[in-house]
């Protein structure tokens, strides 16, 4: 899959001067729907293409394998995947080479999506139909992209129009394993590209009334099987884009993205009814207004800017009973988050120094987090708003030394720092009072280096090392966790040093291979440590752990016949965590072995059949109390899609996922969906 991307980029290899490279890139932008201004920086990318440890999932790939949410799309990538948090939060989470959502920042067109309270991003809320691609950086994330990036980065790149008038309308239906209607998705876009400007509008919406458990599921006290109780969800997103292109190199773009959703949370299928928590999210909304620009300064230099204003609004309601009709007991509450963030960055680059490309970037972001809740026992009471305000800065430089026509040596350095201005909490209920936590600032240095050697016109080898940090969230520093924890304002960033070697090449005329081996050494890992505080047994987040993640990944695709393409990827990943305070800790949620294989077979010019298989080995999970670890079991999922091109503009698709209705778990007590069918119609103009 990523081989097709590399092959497309390799057309730039004929460029022999910087001016020719610029002209070729402009031509590629005019023909590609990828919004280039919205891409994050990829270290090692050259005129011949390729990068260090990264890949991109194209819009075609997400459509061909029916991946309508971000978590599902990431399962197509070597070294990446998704899982379920379990518990009452019902969140879909991701991992990249063993690093989880806290260590892998998420971007939309290069603008950070960050939830300052706890950064518990639910990756199942992000829809893919309106994206041009998903960039996935693994291990080596350029310091020019800003803070964090400890284990990778994910960037959602929107679309950009390529014609005077273009558009797309898509609709799909999802059926459960009994043939009942389970959900639907709609997507529409319209855009225009003129000589000196472009306009784009798009919208996507998905709704699931339920997911269905496999037919072989045995009923329990909390789940009777069939349609999974409390598995409904709704999400929508709209995006608007206006751009100005005064000449062949410069571009200025104003963008608006708004997404909103609500969901319920299924119950643990084995925990006793008396211990279940009845939670719902009536709204989970994100808005982003951002400006992106690129200005060429002469033939050898440029400046890029980003300015943004983001909001995040979230509601979490807890009920007394399984009917979600009563809020009277101490377990009930209504919790509200209201966050705003604004900031920007400036990046400059130049080739004025012979044999060098020098880049520098400055980032600034202010996060203003407000939270409060309504409690119902001993009487109904609305807490006053509690506020946390924090500034985050980063200054970075990266230089690429072009040692020869085939060898580049890259070095990067950044300094990140945080200034905490306010951190409030509320203690007690109806007779409580404010708590103002001690203000502690944090800083960290990051560094990285790599070598990229293009040993042939089609082949490239690379080696890199990157030392990056991840800042702790407000939750980790200050949350009392319903009275079970105490704060640690001085909690420091955790760090990982990531090592990687790899290569990519074309074998013969029709086969592309990419492979990498990697090792990550973690230090100052943040863990919850048991302790006694003011006579009570609580936990506190501390920098106490270390660990090693290591593995190997390989991707291969080949056009074996004019009408048959075969491809896939395999990942081997081993994780070890050493946490003295919790000696029995097991890293959960990630299998040691992961395999994805597919075929694209076109028996007719208008018909394409796409079978695929997903395989994963055991992964560790823990019971609700966290007192016992066990393995969930391996699984094999078979899928099939048939796409029929009715005419130049109209396509119909039918498919089935989890053909054999396999029952499998990614986390304790939360079985995944059984067999599903889907029908899709797509019209383009």
Low-confidence stretches are 1-30, 46-50
Query: Per the principal axes of the C-alpha atoms, what is the gross shape?
Result: globular
Share in helix:
under 10%
The total beta strand count reads 34
| Main beta-sheet annotation | 22 strands, antiparallel, barrel
Give the class from helix and strand content and strand pairing.
Answer: mainly beta
List the total number of helices. 5
Mean pLDDT: 91
Strand content: over 45%
The span between the termini is: 26 Å
> Mind telling me the C-alpha Rg?
25 Å
Q: Gist?
A:
This protein is mainly β and 685 residues long.
Textual characterization of the structure:
- This protein is mainly beta.
- Helix content is 5%, strand content 55%.
- It is built from 5 helices and 34 strands.
- The strands form 4 sheets. The protein has a 22-stranded antiparallel beta barrel.
- The protein is globular.
- The two termini are 26 Å apart.
Question: Which features would summarize this protein structure in a list?
Answer:
34 strands, 5-stranded mixed β-sheet, mainly beta, 685 residues
What topology does this entry show?
Elements: H1 2-9, H2 18-31, E1 54-58, H3 59-64, H4 70-73, E2 80-84, E3 92-96, E4 99-100, E5 106-108, E6 111-113, E7 131-138, E8 152-158, E9 166-175, E10 181-193, E11 197-208, E12 233-244, E13 251-264, E14 278-297, E15 301-319, E16 333-350, E17 356-375, E18 381-382, E19 386-402, E20 407-427, E21 433-436, E22 442-453, E23 460-470, H5 474-478, E24 494-507, E25 511-533, E26 536-561, E27 564-578, E28 593-604, E29 607-616, E30 620-622, E31 629-631, E32 635-645, E33 650-657, E34 676-684
Parallel strand pairs: 5-8
Antiparallel strand pairs: 1-7, 2-3, 3-4, 5-6, 7-8, 9-10, 9-34, 10-11, 11-12, 12-13, 13-14, 14-15, 15-16, 16-17, 17-18, 17-19, 19-20, 20-21, 20-22, 22-23, 23-24, 24-25, 25-26, 26-27, 27-28, 28-29, 29-32, 30-31, 32-33, 33-34
């Amino acid at each position: 899959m990523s081989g097709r991307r590399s092959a497309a980029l390799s057309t730039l290899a004929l460029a022999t001067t910087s001016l020719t490279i610029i002209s070729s890139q402009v031509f590629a932008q005019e023909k590609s729907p990828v919004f280039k201004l919205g891409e994050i920086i990829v270290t090692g990318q050259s005129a011949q293409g390729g990068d260090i440890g990264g890949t991109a999932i194209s819009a075609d790939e997400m459509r061909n394998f029916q991946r309508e949410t971000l978590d599902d799309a990431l399962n197509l990538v070597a070294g990446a995947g998704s899982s379920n948090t379990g518990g009452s939060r019902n969140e879909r989470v991701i991992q990249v080479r063993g690093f989880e959502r806290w260590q892998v920042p998420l971007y939309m067109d290069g603008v950070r999506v960050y939830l300052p309270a706890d950064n518990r991003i639910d990756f199942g809320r992000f829809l893919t139909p309106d994206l041009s691609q998903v960039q996935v950086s693994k291990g080596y994330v350029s310091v020019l992209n800003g803070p964090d990036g400890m284990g990778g980065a994910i960037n959602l790149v929107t679309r950009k129009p390529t014609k005077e008038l273009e558009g797309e309308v898509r609709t799909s239906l999802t059926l459960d394993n009994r043939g009942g209607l389970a959900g639907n998705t709609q997507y529409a876009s319209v855009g225009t590209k003129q000589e000196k400007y472009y306009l784009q509008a798009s919208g996507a919406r998905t709704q699931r009334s339920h997911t269905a458990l496999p037919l072989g599921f045995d009923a329990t006290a909390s789940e009777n099987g069939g349609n999974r109780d409390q598995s409904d969800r709704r999400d929508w997103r709209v995006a608007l884009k206006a751009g100005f292109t005064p000449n062949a190199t410069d571009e200025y773009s104003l963008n608006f993205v708004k997404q909103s959703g609500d969901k319920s949370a299924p119950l643990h299928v084995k925990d006793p009814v008396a211990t279940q928590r009845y939670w719902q999210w009536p709204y989970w909304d994100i808005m982003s207004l951002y400006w992106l620009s690129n200005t060429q300064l002469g033939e050898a230099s440029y400046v890029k800017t980003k300015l943004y204003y983001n909001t995040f609004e979230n509601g979490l309601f807890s009920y007394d009973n399984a009917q979600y009709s009563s809020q009277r007991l101490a377990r009930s509450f209504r919790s509200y988050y209201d966050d705003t963030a604004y900031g920007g960055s400036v990046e400059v680059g130049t080739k004025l120094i012979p044999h060098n490309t020098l880049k520098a970037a400055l980032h600034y972001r202010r996060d203003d987090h407000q939270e409060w809740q309504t409690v119902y026992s001993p009487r109904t009471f609305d807490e006053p708003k509690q506020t946390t305000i924090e500034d985050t800065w980063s200054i970075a430089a990266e230089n690429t030394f072009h040692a020869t026509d085939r060898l580049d040596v890259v070095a990067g350095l950044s300094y990140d720092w945080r200034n905490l201005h306010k951190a409030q909490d509320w203690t007690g209920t109806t007779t409580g009072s404010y708590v103002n936590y001690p203000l502690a600032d944090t800083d960290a240095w990051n560094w990285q280096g790599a070598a990229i050697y293009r040993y042939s016109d089609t082949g490239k080898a690379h080696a890199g090392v990157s030392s990056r940090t991840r800042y702790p969230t407000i939750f980790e520093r200050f949350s009392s966790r319903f009275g079970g924890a105490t704060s640690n304002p001085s909690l420091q960033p955790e760090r990982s040093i990531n090592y990687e070697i790899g290569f990519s090449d074309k074998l013969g005329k029709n086969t592309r291979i990419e492979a990498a081996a990697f090792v990550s050494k973690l230090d100052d890992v943040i863990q919850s440590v048991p302790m006694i505080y003011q006579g009570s047994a609580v936990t506190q987040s501390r920098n106490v752990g270390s660990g090693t993640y290591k593995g190997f990944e390989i991707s291969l695709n080949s056009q074996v016949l004019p009408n048959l393409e075969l491809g896939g990827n395999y990942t081997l990943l081993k994780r070890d965590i050493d946490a003295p305070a919790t000696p029995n800790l097991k890293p959960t949620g990630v299998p040691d072995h992961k395999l994805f294989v597919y075929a694209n077979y076109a028996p007719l010019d208008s018909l394409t059949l796409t079978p695929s298989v997903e395989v994963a080995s055991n992964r560790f999970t823990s019971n609700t109390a966290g007192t016992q670890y066990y393995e969930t079991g391996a699984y094999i999922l078979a899928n099939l899609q048939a796409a029929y091109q009715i005419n130049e503009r109209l396509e119909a698709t039918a498919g089935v996922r989890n053909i054999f209705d396999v029952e499998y778990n990614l986390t304790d007590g939360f079985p995944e969906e059984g067999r599903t069918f889907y029908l899709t119609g797509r019209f383009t103009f």
